[in-house]
Amino acid sequence: MATFFPGESHTFSEYLLVPGYSSCECVPKNVSLRAPLVKYRKGEQPALSLNIPMTSAIMQAVSGPRLAVALAQEGGISFIYGSQTPEDEAAMVREVKDYKAGVVTSDSNLRPEMTLVDVLALKERSGHSAMPVTEDGSAHGRLLGIVTSRDYRPSRDSRDKRVEEFMTPIESLVTAPATATLSEANDIIWENKLNQLPIVNDDGTLVGLVFRKDYDAHKENPLELLDADKRYLVGAGINTRDYEQRVPVLVDAGADVLCIDSSEGYSEWQAITLRWIRDRYGDSVKVGAGNVVDGDGFRFLADAGADFVKVGIGGGSICITREQKGIGRGQASALIDVCQERDKYFRETGVYIPVCSDGGIVYDYHMTLALAMGADFLMLGRYFARFDESPTARVNVNGNYMKEYWGEGSARARNWARYDLGGDKKLSFVEGVDSYVPYAGPLKENVQGSLMKVRSTMCNCGALDLAQLRDKAKITRVSATSLVEGGAHDVLLKDSTSTSSVNFG
Ligand code: RVP
Question: The CBS domain covers which part of the protein (predicted)?
Answer without folding.
Answer: 103-165, 167-225
